[in-house]
């Protein structure tokens, strides 16, 4: 029998992102900018940006996962890395799809911490093993998650990228 997985549909993602935004708003946190962790966090950041009326969105591209439950030893920031000066003094909401091990979120949060007024994290899913406890979480799970944006294989395979056939 195959391992049970969380299934997030596009429709359910709409619900999740609105409920996540409601948590942020109800908490009184008013971010100056939303910092997305690409790639999965792009969808979350865009939805939160609209729901919280924050137009200032930034992106950090961090590579960690190479397959289903397969990852590099440590997460790696890929260029272009945001200029810390651009974040200085801001109130930042870091957005990602999942806090699995928490290593990626910790890398991004720590990158921001010395430069921003305040940083908080929002994720759709958080796993119990995550090294980072996010302030805003839609659901907690121990299962692997099928996200609507990454459940299907790529249409093309690009050379020079970390992809298994």
TrEMBL record:
Gene3D superfamilies: 3.40.50.2020. Keywords: Glycosyltransferase, Transferase. Pfam families: Pribosyltran. One of its GO terms (molecular function) is glycosyltransferase activity. InterPro entries: PRTase-like (IPR029057), PRTase_dom (IPR000836). The keyword Transferase applies. Residues 10-150 form the Phosphoribosyltransferase domain. This is Phosphoribosyltransferase domain-containing protein.
